[in-house]
Design goal:
Layout: E1 2-10, E2 13-15, E3 21-23, H1 26-43, E4 50-57, E5 62-70
Antiparallel strand pairs: 1-2, 1-3, 1-4, 4-5
Length: 75
């Protein structure tokens, strides 16, 4: 099992993952990041104009970046 770090960028604010999580491989870590992004946005109180990025890193390099945005437009 490899350790991966999921650093979050929410509306320009970086939240670094100091502990990381163990996954079987890079693909599993990136799939987890997709699910976490959806869950994180789903729990937000005010999702209008929310921009979230989750960088999956092995500690030395970026393996994938998951980006999610919700933009509310009114006529």
């Amino acid at each position: 099992m490899e350790r991966f770090y999921l650093h979050k960028q929410l509306n320009g604010h970086l939240i670094e993952d100091q502990k990381g999580l163990r996954f079987a491989n890079e693909e599993a870590a990136c799939r987890y990041a997709v699910r976490r992004a959806a869950a994180f946005i789903g729990k937000a109180r005010d999702v209008a104009d929310t921009h979230l990025g989750i960088e999956v890193s092995d500690g030395s390099r970026t393996r994938c970046i998951v980006k999610a945005s919700i933009v509310v437009e009114k006529p």
